[in-house]
């Protein structure tokens, strides 16, 4: 054997050894030992067992094709192993952009019932999650949980009442806006509108910047796990990664394994996914090390489809982030837990992101009265035992403010629905889209260096006259065969369901941007800029006290001056 060949062999052997060691604790305590021994007394009040620890991990802008088990060019050994030994959710739906997915997870309500059915919450908008909504962490607090959030909030922060610590989380560490620099935590909302965005609770964490956010957030989760006693109180952690949202930034060591990818954006994006995969491995190890694993439920989900122009891929699905095609709303998701009764399988049960609220409240021991009026369903039996999903349909959204389709009309909608309005609904096997659903391209994996780019248009220019689409998603998951003309009976049925849902829609909350939010006016950081009622009262009292103090001070100075003048006058008289 030549020296080069020997060196190469030793390097490969070392890499294999390191990989084996990294999973040693996993294999020793792995799911093989638990495969046929589900906890029969789980969540039985008579058993006296503590409710499970819940770890919900959400990634940002990770595409359908951006995980190893979907035959991606991206390697995710940890996520693949967790999913393979748990339950993969292959009929799981999310929302096409950030704020809506997070709001639906936190409230269990469709956007039409929270007023957040249009776009996202911009950094300068005086808007946030409605105060009349009881959030998932608030319910879990009522059930005795210690609740913590780490990562991206993106649900508004114009006043302190909007902050995570006021909406059910005991602690919070992360960023409030939708996109920040992974190292400096600078977030910009336009030219000269940049500010620092990393927060510890309700304070700006100026001293925490400089470390890669995926590592920093993982470190915080591990610290929470290390400090908490798993036997004393159930734990809920919502880890909302900033990754893999743009900007495309990653430590160099994660980029090197993808040097063979000629597309630079894809290479950097893949590196960011690998950093997330390593982070999940470290968190899983911590769950075992600190005694949580045996009574834990770990859920993994993305928040919306990938953005191909920023390295993401939803192939072979149609569309991208920001659209109501499957590429924008078909989710990546799996559940890993020793408490699952049937593991190592793929679930085709229909699941929506609003379902996590009632499902987790149910796992925590809550009764049905705690989830009355929600749009979500408790899908635990469908996930854990393979039963039929209680969910039969999904309202993807109705957005009356989005650009109306020129070819749409009430007449086109058989007098039932104005098809100019952007809307989408799934019922059984059928999916209907109206209005302008967004760019409907099928974008292949990024193989060439400059592909795709802004000139990648295709379908959205060719077929611009439509305002109604109908697909049998079970038979045609890639949305290639529009059946709206062949099945007008189904179209009418789904249009009627849109009209039904629209009757309960609340007005859209999308206020104009407030110039007072400018970080330059708030110490250089993105922070709440509108005082709540208590703060107004306190500031008014303080202002009055200050005015009274100033008056007293002026009077004292005046009297003191008179005394001095009197003393001087007496001295002059005595001369």
UniProtKB/TrEMBL annotation:
Q: Does the keyword NAD apply?
A: no
Q: Which UniProt keywords apply?
A: Calcium, Glycoprotein, Hydrolase, Metal-binding, Signal
Xref: Pfam families = Sulfatase
The chain positions of domain Sulfatase N-terminal read 52-365
GO: which molecular function terms? Answer: metal ion binding; sulfuric ester hydrolase activity
User: Where is the chain membrane-spanning?
Assistant: none
**Where is the secretion signal located?**
1-22
The family database entries (Gene3D superfamilies) matched by this protein are listed as: 3.30.1120.10, Alkaline Phosphatase, subunit A
Q: Could you identify this protein by its name?
A: Arylsulfatase family, member Ia
**Organism expressing this protein natively:** Oryzias melastigma
State the organism's lineage.
Answer: Eukaryota, Metazoa, Chordata, Craniata, Vertebrata
């Amino acid at each position: 054997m030549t020296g080069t060949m020997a060196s190469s062999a030793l390097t490969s052997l070392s890499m294999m050894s390191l990989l084996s060691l990294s999973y040693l604790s996993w294999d020793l305590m792995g799911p093989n030992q638990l495969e046929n021994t589900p906890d029969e007394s789980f969540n039985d009040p008579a058993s006296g067992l503590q409710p499970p620890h819940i770890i919900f991990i959400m990634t940002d802008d990770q595409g359908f094709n951006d995980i190893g088990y979907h035959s991606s060019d991206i390697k995710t050994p940890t996520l693949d192993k967790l999913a393979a030994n748990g339950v993969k959710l292959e009929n799981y739906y999310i929302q096409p952009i950030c704020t809506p997915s997070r709001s639906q997870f936190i409230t269990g309500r469709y956007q039409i019932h929270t007023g957040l059915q249009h776009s996202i919450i911009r950094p300068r908008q005086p808007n946030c999650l409605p105060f009349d909504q009881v959030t998932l962490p608030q319910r879990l607090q009522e059930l005795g949980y210690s609740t913590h959030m780490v990562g991206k909030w993106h649900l508004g922060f114009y006043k302190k009442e909007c902050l995570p610590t006021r909406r059910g989380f005991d602690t919070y560490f992360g960023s409030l806006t939708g996109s920040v620099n992974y190292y400096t935590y600078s977030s910009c909302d336009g030219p000269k509108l940049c500010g620092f965005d990393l927060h510890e609770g309700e304070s700006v964490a100026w001293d925490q910047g400089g470390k890669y956010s995926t590592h920093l957030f993982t470190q915080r989760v591990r610290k929470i796990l290390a400090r908490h006693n798993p036997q004393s109180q159930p734990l809920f952690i919502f880890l909302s990664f900033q990754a893999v949202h743009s900007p495309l930034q990653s430590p160099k060591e994660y980029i090197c394994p993808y040097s063979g990818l000629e597309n630079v954006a894809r290479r950097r994006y893949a590196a960011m996914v690998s950093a997330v995969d390593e982070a999940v491995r470290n968190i899983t190890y911590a769950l075992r090390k600190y005694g949580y694993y045996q009574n834990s439920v770990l859920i993994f989900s993305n928040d919306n489809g990938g953005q191909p122009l920023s390295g993401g891929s939803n192939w072979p699905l149609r569309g991208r982030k920001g659209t109501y095609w499957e590429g924008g709303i078909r989710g990546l998701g799996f559940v890993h837990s020793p408490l699952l009764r049937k593991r190592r399988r793929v679930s085709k049960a229909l699941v929506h992101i609003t379902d996590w609220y009632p499902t987790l409240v149910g796992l925590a021991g809550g009764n049905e009265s705690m989830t009355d009026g929600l749009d979500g369903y408790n899908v635990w039996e469908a996930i854990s035992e393979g039963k039929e999903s209680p969910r039969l349909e999904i309202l993807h959204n109705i957005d009356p403010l989005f650009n109306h389709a020129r070819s749409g009309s009430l007449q086109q909608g058989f007098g039932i629905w104005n098809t100019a309005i952007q809307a989408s609904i799934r019922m059984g096997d059928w999916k209907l889209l109206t209005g302008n659903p967004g760019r409907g391209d099928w974008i292949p994996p990024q193989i060439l260096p400059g592909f795709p780019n802004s000139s990648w248009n295709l379908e959205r220019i060719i077929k611009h006259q439509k305002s109604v689409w109908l697909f049998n998603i079970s038979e045609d998951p890639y949305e290639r065969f529009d059946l709206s003309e062949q099945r007008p009976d189904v179209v009418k049925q789904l249009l009627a369901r849109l009209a039904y849902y629209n009757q309960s829609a609340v007005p859209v909350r999308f206020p104009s941007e407030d110039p007072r939010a400018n970080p330059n006016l708030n110490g250089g950081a993105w922070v709440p800029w509108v005082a709540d009622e208590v703060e107004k009262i306190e500031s008014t009292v303080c202002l009055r006290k200050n005015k009274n103090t100033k008056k007293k001070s002026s009077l004292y100075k005046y009297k003191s001056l008179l005394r001095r003048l009197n003393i001087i006058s007496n001295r002059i008289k005595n001369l």
